[in-house]
Write a structure and sequence with these properties.
It is built from 23 helices and 18 strands. By secondary structure, the protein is α+β, with helices and mostly antiparallel strands. The chain has four domains: 166 residues, Glutamine Phosphoribosylpyrophosphate, subunit 1, domain 1; 212 residues, Rossmann fold; 100 residues, no CATH class; 61 residues, no CATH class. A seven-stranded antiparallel sheet has the order 12-11-7-6-5-4-18. Strands 2-3-1-9-8-10 form a six-stranded antiparallel sheet, with helices on one face. Strand 2 and strand 3 form a beta hairpin.
């Protein structure tokens, strides 16, 4: 059995919203009213996940996890809705903010995409929600172009990863807030912009360290027993050691790999020795569901396709295991690579500022990654703009995949559709990309910053869905590296001084010096799970082939199932091809299971609404 999904919806303060309110409260077990008494927030969320501040007729709700107390929220609310995003940008944690002042409603999620908002017309008024399926009409048709984009590897980004696959529901861009007027109308306004990279690494390191520590503290301060991944790598070990400072009940968790060459266990054991007061769970590879297990069965309610669906059953198994040890919140290290690795992308800006230095460092990357000389020179000299890069990406969806052996400093990392995607799928996806190119603007001042923001948002949107899996087992997933304050701290640093081919995650290393043991800071290896991937594919191949029968994707005209079956049964010399298979099967699995939040057995009861109270 899966726990029902958590969700919330936001209603405008107007009598015209009464029909929408009746529809949504039928599926809710919590209702928070406007000052007028009309429903404002309705939904289902866990204890301690919402803090409410009321000041006269005005009110502000923080839904999620933050270190902000009632006094801070009261001060933010006192300034009204204008510039509320700016006044709350420095709040630590990951959350939605919803304010109601003077008949207007203002709401935002997180810039990283971990917390998102959607909007739709519900019974004549615009309504906001944190899940797309909470707003979709029963039996709402899917948008084939949005589904086709979900089959691309890697995700095309540029806001296209936020396209809602359910017709009639639209996404609020992650860097925008939504404003509902008293007439039920909706307006979008920008609340987040990337900071300028003005700080040296030395000057910016303290802010990165402080942001990470506060991000962890936002989860441990009121969560009771907290779980945390502890693979032995820098990202998860940093979180575990930081969590141990602020929680008395820590459960660390690690999957064992079947790969005998994986040295994660050695480093994880070293990290566990530094946490004698924690409970340590190490699950052997044969004690976990294999990758690709049971993909022919429906998932817990997900409101969008999950690209990393190969790990669905292993994720659910882990969440249930953590719940059995008392953890109600679990942290992972997702976002650490996106923020702190891949610093070669800064070479492009460095080449314009200090060409000789850039060439010396590029030569080091060439030696390590085997970049061809002329390809490296062309990439460093390229000065084409963002819109042109997105149009070029639209024209190359069926080109060969970009390999690590090719230098890449462009605005847009080229997405590829798999060979079983139909011409209609390619044209639909390319059409959306060309349309986006006509209006899209870079999400940061420099190429390297833009690439990092896009990587973080792609990861954040995925982790939002993984959190839905965890919550179906009664555990909340937290990704501290994807907090907006951590992103801001990293983007504020001049990255051209970080593109050193001989240093691994230098910014994280300096920020966690004194937290991570020195010997771990010397680690240069990274565990892989390729053996688990191929073992899972071999064991569950028949179930994967079952998904290719009577495909919903085929009905939409997006997939040639014969070509997909050939890929599933054919030889694989690397794991790269598996990503395209699972992205397609993730979309197919979702098409077979889409559903709406269900009404509770008992009628909803409004919570108490005192200043600063958690609901």
């Amino acid at each position: 059995m899966h726990a029902p999904p958590t969700w919330f919806a936001v209603l405008p303060d107007t009598d015209d919203a009464a029909p929408a309110a009746r529809l949504l409260t039928a599926a809710a077990d919590r209702v928070v009213p406007h000052a007028s008494g009309r429903p404002w927030l309705v939904g289902t969320w866990g204890p301690g996940e919402a803090a409410l501040v009321i000041a006269g007729p005005s009110r502000l709700a923080l839904i999620g996890r933050s270190t902000a107390g009632a006094a801070v929220l009261e001060a933010a609310l006192a300034g009204g809705l204008d510039r509320l995003g700016e006044r709350t940008r420095a709040l630590g944690g990951c959350f939605h903010l919803v304010a109601a002042v003077g008949g207007r409603v203002w709401a935002r999620g997180s810039a990283s995409g971990v917390r998102r908002l959607f909007h739709a017309d519900v019974r004549g008024v615009r309504v906001l929600a944190d899940r797309a399926d909470a707003l979709a009409a029963p039996g709402a048709p899917v948008d084939p172009a949005a589904v086709a984009l979900r089959m691309a590897v890697p995700s095309p980004g540029e806001g296209l990863e936020q396209a809602v696959p359910l017709r009639g529901v639209d996404a609020v861009p992650t860097d925008h807030a939504a404003v509902l007027g008293p007439d039920g109308s909706l307006r979008l306004t920008r609340w987040w912009e990337a900071p300028r990279p003005a700080l040296s690494p030395e000057a910016g390191v303290p802010a990165v360290a402080e942001a990470l520590e506060e991000a962890v503290r936002a989860r441990t301060r009121a969560a009771g027993t907290v779980g945390c991944d502890l693979s032995g790598g820098w990202d998860s070990t940093s979180l575990s050691l930081l969590a141990a400072r602020s929680t008395e009940h820590l459960v660390t968790y690690r999957w064992d790999s079947s790969d005998p060459g994986d040295d994660d266990p050695v480093w994880a054991e070293r990290a566990r020795s530094l946490l004698p007061g924690a409970v340590h769970r190490v699950v052997p590879a044969d004690g976990l569901p294999r990758w690709f297990a049971r993909l022919d069965t429906p998932s817990p309610a997900l409101d969008e396709p999950l690209s990393c669906i190969r790990l669905r059953e292993r994720t659910l198994h882990s969440a249930r295991d953590l719940a059995s040890h008392g953890a109600r919140l679990h942290m992972n290290g997702q976002g650490g690579d996106e923020l702190f690795a891949g610093n070669s992308v800064h070479l492009h800006a460095l080449a314009a500022r200090a060409p000789l230095t850039a060439l010396r460092r590029a030569w080091g990357y060439r030696a390590l990654l085997r970049w061809p000389v002329w390809a490296t020179a062309r990439a460093l000299a390229d000065r084409r703009g963002h819109a042109r890069a997105l149009r070029r990406a639209a024209d190359t969806l069926d080109a060969p995949a970009v390999t690590p052996g090719a230098p890449h400093f462009d605005w847009v990392f080229p997405a590829r559709l798999p060979p079983w995607a139909t011409p209609d799928a390619r044209e639909a996806a390319a059409g959306r990309m060309r349309t986006a190119a006509a209006t899209a603007a870079p999400s940061a001042p420099t190429r390297a910053q833009h690439v990092k923001v896009q990587a973080v948002r792609s990861s954040g949107c995925t982790m939002r869905l993984v959190d839905q899996l965890y919550r179906s087992a009664g555990v909340e997933l937290a990704t501290p590296y994807l907090d907006d304050t951590v992103l801001d701290a990293v983007l504020s640093i001049d990255g051209t001084r970080l593109c050193d081919p001989y240093r691994y995650k230098p910014l994280l290393a300096e920020a966690m010096r004194g937290v991570l043991p020195e010997d771990l800071l010397e680690r240069r290896t990274k565990g892989t799970f390729s053996g688990d991937a191929f073992a899972g594919l071999n064991e569950h191949r028949s179930a994967l082939l079952a998904l290719t029968e009577d495909m919903r994707l085929e009905r939409l005209g997006l997939v040639d199932p014969r070509a997909l079956r050939a890929a599933i049964t054919g030889p694989h010399t690397g794991t790269g091809g598996l990503a395209a298979i699972e992205a397609t099967l993730g979309a197919e699995n979702w098409l077979r299971q889409k559903r709406r939040p269900q009404a509770p057995a008992s009628p909803p009861s409004p919570p108490q609404t005192r200043i600063g109270e958690a609901t």
